[in-house]
Amino acid sequence: MDDRSCRTVKALYEKHSAAFEQLRPTNLVEKAWLDRFITNIKPEGHILDIGCGNATPIAEYLLSQGFSVTGVDSSPSMITRCKAKFPQQAWLIADMRELNLGIKFDGILAWDSFFHLPRADQRQMFRIFSAHAQAGAALMFNTGTSDGEAIGKFEGEPLYHASLAPDEYTLLMQNSGFQVIQQIVEDPQCGGRTVWLAGTNP
């Protein structure tokens, strides 16, 4: 796979940030999973949303349920929109692979974002997840179904995706202090996403 493909993901989302806001579905097909996620987080807990986009609909829903959110995205334009919508929350321009916030969260979410990383970077992310997780924290992310790379399209341009094998995700989580709570492959109730929900020990 051409390494340039994965390096262009950040630039692509910044270039088409306005289109992304218009095209991103807001009917919250993810609601059932988000509800499972927050069931494993203490009331009014603090959630780290990695790859928060424009904050709608995911962060917006979490805020409506009484949680506070720190959102991280590599796109300055998207973070600007987040700040305009929800100025009371923390919104940071950052590459998820370089996160070192010095804060531990009650929930960590990497929804429709984690799978844009190359496989080697995905492996390293579990160390970052662990460093930002409180005891008893929940972690949720989505992936592909098997080990490999793929190129999709966004606004007519190539968009990189990658995935590890399911057994490797399970092992990486175990080695980082997380235990799988639930995992569904290509959930038909969630747009065909493959979703992982895990938690740390209390």
What would your notes on this structure say?
Pfam families: Methyltransf_25. InterPro entries: Methyltransf_25, SAM-dependent_MTases_sf. GO terms for molecular function: methyltransferase activity. This protein is α/β, with parallel strands linked by helices and 202 residues long. It has a single domain, classed as Rossmann fold. 34% of the residues lie in helices and 32% in strands. The strands form two sheets. A seven-stranded mixed sheet has the order 3-2-1-4-5-9-8, with helices on both faces. The longest helix is centred in the middle third of the chain and has 13 residues. The chain is globular. The mean pLDDT is 92.
Calculate Rg over CA atoms: 16 Å
> What is the H-and-E element order?
HHHHEHEHEEHEEEHEE
- The name of the CATH architecture is 3-Layer(aba) Sandwich
What is the makeup of the main sheet? Answer: 7 strands, mixed
Portion of residues in helices? Answer: 25-40%
How many β-strands, per DSSP? 9
Oligomer: single chain
Organism: Winslowiella iniecta
Pfam families: Methyltransf_25 (PF13649)
GO molecular function, one term: methyltransferase activity
Domain Methyltransferase: 47-131
